[in-house]
Design goal:
alpha/beta; two-stranded parallel ribbon
Amino acid sequence: MGFTYNKVLVTGAAGFIGFHLSKRLLAGGCDVFGLDNLNDYYDVTLKEKRLEILKGHDGFTFVKKDLADRQGIRDLCEKEGFDVVVNLAAQAGVRYSLKNPHAYIDANVVGFVNILEACRHTNVKHLVYASSSSVYGANTAMPFSVHHNIDHPVSLYAASKKSNELMAHAYSHLYDMHCTGLRFFTVYGPWGRPDMALFLFTRAILENQPIQIFNHGKMQRDFTYIDDIVEGVVRVMGKLPQPNPDWSGKHPDPGTSYAPYKIYNIGNNSPVELMAFVAAIEEALGLTAEKEFLDLQAGDVPATYADVDDLMQDVGFKPATPIKIGIQRFVDWYRDFYGV
């Protein structure tokens, strides 16, 4: 069921995905309220530069706020009356969750219940929120499907994202709230996060530093280009999730519900070997990397691979940007942005 929206709250708007999504919505004539706490998990300068671009659009309003500010979030939603809320704000990163677990509970669990409560009390028509491919945890059946059970997370980050899906389902059931969760698969592209492999590798290679290759290169990732992620999000925003009439408590389907609740994977649907990924970066840079091979890190999974059949069926889209094209675009942006 399609519906039109004019006024959107994007949380985490100064972040990588939030910035690109906000830009796309503004170009489409939406009024976008971009909320961010501008935390220093990574270089705040990058977040501020993204915000500068967004503030150049007439329809953009920046709100500096933390998801943990329960009353502040509620007041904002009451005052503005958003059609759609897209919750992208989160404490990101698998490895950091081993060092700072409380940051994940504060942002991803407490923050998310504040979003749910604000949406419930202000009659937001559709809550779309970021989950993650990391929820598949110890699963090895490939490709990962939204209809698979995901009860074995291998990091607190993954557990916090699964908790978002569970909390959203409870609200969908209790209050007939339209909630759609999106499991993103390794997003990359221009303006990307400095803690992600592409950024780390590009920087290290340009600085003649060795790159760290975990699990001795035996990793596969379903790298998904940022424009494909945004296209998927925009299409899902305009499609209210409908109850599945065939859902049965005897054989519960994790990807759908008797409530207006849905989960989608947004991934490139073609896993890439880590060494092929590195080779594509070397080719784009015209340089060869010095490589340091290491064991698999705690919390990491060896492979990810998205089944996107549901996304294709419901919104007629699947990501398809080839890795070499996406990496070249990132490298061009990086050289321009840092003047390398």
